[in-house]
Amino acid sequence: MTDVLRTTDLCKQYQMGDVTVDALRDIELVVPKGQFVAVMGPSGAGKSTLLHLMGGLDTPTDGDVVLGGRRLAHLSDDEITVLRRRQVGFVFQFYNLLPTLSAAENVALPLLLDGQRTEAHASRVDELLELVGLDHRRDHRPDQLSGGEQQRVAIARAFVNDPQIVLVDEPTGNLDSNAGAAVLDLLRRTCKELGGTVVMVTHDPRAASYADRVVFLKDGETVRQVFAGEEGIDPEEILAVMAQLG
Is 16 domain-assigned? Predict the structure, then answer.
């Protein structure tokens, strides 16, 4: 199985006055193609920091991120920007849709930002809107969509450039349980139907149970992993691990 992303001795420190804070320490993580990985841990464990380093949104203090065979530490800022735009999809808790654009236009936005003619990719946009169940809402603006529908548009947008990996930050944080379950099921299906690779940060054991693997962080270190069996991952098992981590 091909590795899409690999971190090696990944460290991140922040300076707070005279105090040095270790947000991440020597993280070794391999994400194979087609896998859905959830990252969990107590508040301050380093989950969001790890996600930002994976996506080239921040730079490590030490160590490296290898994405699609390219070491981010060896790339210039401009090269990382292009790599991120073309090879990484992002899904955020607050959707980050442009309010003046329709659903279809929001999905196509990464293509436009990359200087591509969106007309040439109309079939791709249509395919993704159909996949997320919003082909009938393609001309609606975000204020005409529910929170769950907006998040599904965000997921379609994340996959429009056929990225190496999609990084997801608390995708159900603003959704009710039904809408959240629909979004998680959609993320799961994209891995299967599009061959997508997903890393998701979440605090919700039920959300993490949709993944193929759950990686637990504590105090900036990887302390445990749980893998899905034939029937997936039991949320109670995740809860038990989280209780042990405090």
Answer: no
pLDDT confidence bin for 120, thresholds 50/70/90: confident
DSSP secondary structure, 106-169, as one string: HHHHHHHHTT--GGGGHHHHHHHHHHTT-GGGTT--GGGS-HHHHHHHHHHHHHTT--SEEEEE
pLDDT of residue 118: 74
* Domain membership of residue 200 as a residue range: 35-58+87-245
H or E segment and range at residue 207: helix 205-208
Crossing angle of helices 103-113 and 147-159, rounded to 10°: 30
| Assigned domain for 197 exists | yes
The sheet with strand 62-67 has its strands ordered as: 19-32, 3-16, 62-67, 70-71
CB 105 within 8 A of CB 181: no
Lowest mean pLDDT among 91-100, 113-122, 230-239: 113-122
Q: Using CA atoms, how far apart are residues 110 and 118, in angstroms rounded to an integer?
A: 9
Distance CA 229, CA 101 (A): 42
Residue 203 belongs to a domain with what CATH number?
3.40.50.300
Question: Rounded to 5 degrees, what are φ and ψ at 21?
Answer: -105, 125
Domain assignment present for 80 = no
Task: Please name the residues in contact with 110: beta carbons below 8 A apart, sequence gap of 6 or more.
Answer: 85, 89, 157, 160, 161
User: What gap in Å lies between CA 31 and CA 116, rounded to an integer?
Assistant: 29
Cα angle 15, 18, 20; round to 5: 40
Among 20, 5, 124, residue whose Cα is nearest residue 138: 124
Number of domains into which the chain is organized? 1
